[in-house]
Amino acid sequence: MTAPIDEAIARVHHDEWARVVAGLARRFGDLDVAEDATAEAFAAAVEHWRRNGVPPNPGGWLIITATRRAIDRLRRESHRDAKYQAASMLIDNSPAVADGPIEDDRLRLVFTCCHPALSMEARVALTLRLVGGLTVGEIASAFLVPETTLAQRITRAKRKIKAAHIPYLVPSATEVQRRLTGVLAVVYLIFNEGYLPSGGDENLRTDLSGEAIRLGRLLRELLPSDGEVTGLLALMLLTGARHAARVPPDGELVTLGDQDRSSWDRDQLVEGWALVRERLAAVDAGAAPPGRYQLLAAVNSVHTYAPSANRTDWSQIVTLYDRLVEIEPSPVVRLNRAVALSEYDGPAVGLAEVDRLTDALADYHAFHAARAHLLRLLGRTDEAVAAYDTAIRLAGNPAEQRYLARRRDELRR
Amino acid sequence: MARYMLSVFGPTERTDFGDYDSKEAMLQAFADTGAFNEKLEREGYFVFADGLSAATNATTVDGRGAQPVFTDGPYLETKEHVGGFWVIEAPDLDVALALAAEGSKACRGRVEVRPFHTEQDIQEMLGS
User: Fold this and answer.
1) Which of A26, A246, A258, A344 is the most exposed place for a label (fewest CB within 10 A)?
2) Is-contact A245 A261, C-beta < 8 A?
3) What gap in Å lies between CA A76 and CA A90, rounded to an integer?
4) What's a Pfam family in this record (chain A) (predicted)?
């Protein structure tokens, strides 16, 4: 009976991986050493714990084991002064305080993996590997790239971190806000890749949204008073809760209005709503005005709170999008606002708004899908069919393509 | 401390005033760059800095064969070339990037930040 033990090991892996890698990275100043030693320690744990049970303090056991492995590795290496270095590292006397405003090794690791000097792809890969503990193979299959490509991407990024002296620290209080935006973008990108895969049908991609939520929880644990951190977690919970209803096993996308609301993940919704309420209270009490993630979370809480689609409070959603357009006047945000507006003020008003975005969004499938839907409601069938055709051509996601094709074919009868 | 090269890129085709549109713009950029250089010296980052003559004044030399070959012009055929550079010493990349941002603003050019090899890099290359 190893199953409960394996479950316990998997749980410890989730809970402790980032802490062990991050602690070792600080102590040894080298991400390679930290990652390899941590992976070895987990391999050793599987062996020992299956035989002897999970120790009372699994995190401590792992840190001690990983540290020994790292020191062994440094000893093996042929550097002239490695022995002295290894000896000095037996005692962890590196300063634990004084770098940034918040002191947690895991937060340093997150800021290093998401450093703006690294490409977005490298940031995503490093974060999933070093903070999330996913294997290179898992990350590669989730992003549909060959394993060797992904391994190279990680190796190159780690080499740059070392060669360019990308610091292993939490940025200063004034910098943290700016840099955090990039960190949140990485986590949201991971979430979206799992939530709306741009191609393929790998199971792991739903695991990716789960992993993003886990990273979101970690960030909230580390930065509990940051509104956007909380907002992003709430947004991912409220969106992710609808995943099963959105893409059922038969594989055709079900849009929000047609989803079976009873199949939404209630626990995730309750948690998301609580976070949105927490932010509303904080803003009322004088916290900074909500940013994009808090506003998007609020939009999704209005959607999910309605007992049925036709009882959605569209005026509130339009108001929230108005505020979002103020801080982020991008064409995609304006498209979402126009769609909400069409629910509130009718398809003609919505279409007029959508058509203003033609130049900016000509290559974006969701623009043509929205237009098709509005043209259909207005009885402009031929134009609707043409818009569906364009949307299908541009959509990369198969579930979405099937949904759009069915909608188009309904019009052709 | 790590050493970085901050290279400033500008168009290959220069105006009568180098990379600038007018004499006034050029003089203002020189003044701002001078002030930035003074800051680098004052705060202990400065190693060396200078501006380069036009890339068209470059000559490329290949001395690998029996006879050296001299070719008129820069080694790379690109629309933009290095127009000048700083060599600085900084504790880490974040500091180097912040300084590069100031330098870029001062000289009105885009700046590439590139670390130099360290003693440790070389040791590792020799060791592996």
Assistant:
1) A258
2) yes
3) 15
4) Sigma70_r4_2
Contacts of B94 in chain A (CB under 8 A): 166-167, 171, 175
The number of C-beta contacts closer than 8 angstroms across A and B is: 32
Query: Is some CB atom of chain A closer than 8 A to the CB atom of B116?
Result: no
Nearest to A164 among B91, B93, B127 (CB): B93
CATH number at residue B108: 3.30.70.1060
The domain of B53 spans 2-126
CATH 1.25.40.10 domain locations along chain A: 306-412
For chain A (length 413 residues), average pLDDT per consecutive 10?
78 92 93 94 94 92 95 75 55 50 82 95 96 92 91 95 92 87 95 74 75 95 94 97 81 86 94 97 95 97 94 95 96 95 94 96 95 95 96 88 93 80
CB B48 within 8 A of CB B87: yes
Q: Does B101 touch chain A (CB under 8 A)?
A: no
Q: Are A143 and A129 in contact (CB under 8 A)?
A: no
CATH of domain A306-412: 1.25.40.10
DSSP-derived pairing of the beta strands B59-62 and B69-72: antiparallel
Predicted complex ipTM exceeds 0.95: no
Q: How far apart are CA A158 and CA A166, in angstroms?
A: 10
pLDDT, tens digit, for every residue of B59-72?
999 999 999 999 99
How many domains does one find in chain B? 1
pTM of the model: 0.87
